[in-house]
Design brief:
Blueprint lengths: L1 E5 L5 H10 L3 E5 L3 H9 L3 E2 L3 H7 L2 E4 L4 H9 L4 H4 L5 E4 L5 H13 L3 E4 L2 E2 L1 H7 L2 E6 L2 H12 L2 E8 L3 H29 L4 H8 L7 H12 L8 H18 L4 H15 L10 H9 L6
Parallel strand pairs: 1-2, 1-4, 2-3, 4-5, 5-6, 8-9
Antiparallel strand pairs: 7-8
Helix pairs in contact: 1-7, 4-6, 9-11, 9-12, 9-14, 12-13
Bound molecules: nicotinamide-adenine-dinucleotide.
Nicotinamide-adenine-dinucleotide (NAD) binds next to helix 4, strand 7 and helix 7.
Length: 294
């Protein structure tokens, strides 16, 4: 199939490579030329604007930072909807606000374009391996139609409900990950202050009820004092802000999410916004005067 792909960052680039590997023709667009060059070197063709890409393919995928970027690329000047006619498909795989997905879907529907929101979890390593977890929202018949394409980028592809349900699911994922990282950082700072080695604590508890994929991935980074991203604090602030807006909109208070968001805002103000989200350990180092790691 001919597929358009817009947004060739940390995630988009390897996702394009997996679409190419699965035998699709991919036409790409990004505002950063080097990112386009990498995708073209891997076998993709390039378009001159989102509208140009959309005019050449039956299906466009977007993988952009946040709601305003997706709105600009889809609904803005020279956007996807300028180039797409009735019957075309848009799959937005960015992590954005569920309400924004619904607004973008309305604009698509007005032009006869069908849309799914299908954000992912798993980060760059799973984007490279093609083993992302995809959580999709929108019309179920459309989901069934494009499921195989999603499986060329992910190993788990789950239909979650109507449009916006994919991003609501992703917000739940981001709340659980953020709070879990904060809990690990808080607990490991306490043990360090109490004179017990965090490395031994990790070894002792990782197989018990407190063990988690998050702890396995992030505790070693905290112990090594390695905060190279992975998933950046600034992107996680974006997700927690979207979670708080969504929670407030539906009458679900999120007190723990609000606390961790403020910890991340503190890190951002301290210049650590581009660090991995495991840098929540730096917040606890600041308030306790003790580092978990080196
Ligand atoms: P990124 O910042 O690396 O890439 C975003 C890309 O979008 C960049 O190449 C940028 O140039 C491009 N872009 C921005 N505005 C544009 C426009 N108007 N037109 C064309 N291109 C434009 O971000 P990423 O890490 O690849 O994340 C993308 C999305 O996936 C985000 O919503 C993020 O929350 C989500 N996500 C990221 C990870 C991760 O570990 N990095 C994991 C899961 C989900």
């Amino acid at each position: 199939m001919k597929i358009g792909f817009i947004g060739l960052g940390i995630m988009g680039k390897p996702m394009v490579k997996n679409l190419l590997k699965a035998g699709h023709d991919v036409i790409v667009y990004d505002i950063i030329e080097n990112n386009v060059k990498d995708a073209v070197d891997a076998g993709a063709k390039s378009g001159t604007s989102p509208a140009d890409v959309a005019s050449q393919v039956p299906l466009v995928i977007t993988m952009l930072p946040n709601s305003p970027h997706v709105k600009t690329v889809v609904m803005g000047e020279k956007g996807v909807l300028e180039g797409a006619e009735k019957g075309k498909i848009l799959i937005d795989m960015s992590s954005i606000a569920p309400l924004a997905s619904q607004e973008i879907e309305k604009a698509c529907a007005a032009k006869g374009v069908r849309m799914l929101d299908a954000p992912v979890s798993g980060g760059e390593p799973k984007a490279v391996d093609g083993t992302l977890a995809v959580m999709a929202g929108g019309d179920k018949a459309l989901f069934d139609e494009v499921k195989d394409i999603l499986f060329s980028m992910g190993s788990s592809v789950v239909y979650c409900g109507g449009i916006g349900a994919g991003n609501t699911t992703k917000l739940a994922n981001q709340i659980i990950v953020a709070l879990n990282i904060a809990a690990v950082a808080e607990a490991f700072t306490m043990v360090k202050k109490a004179g017990v080695e965090p490395e031994l604590v990790f070894e002792a508890i990782k197989g018990g009820l407190a063990g988690s994929t998050v702890m396995n991935a992030k505790a070693p980074m905290m112990i090594e004092g390695n905060f190279k991203p992975g998933f950046k604090i600034d992107l996680h602030i974006k997700d927690l802000a979207n979670a708080l807006d969504t929670g407030h909109g539906v009458g679900a208070p999120l007190p723990l999410t609000a606390s961790v968001r403020e910890m991340m805002e503190t890190l951002h103000a301290d210049g650590a916004g581009q660090d991995d989200h495991s840098a929540l350990a730096k917040y606890y180092a600041k308030v306790s005067g003790t580092k978990i790691g080196k």
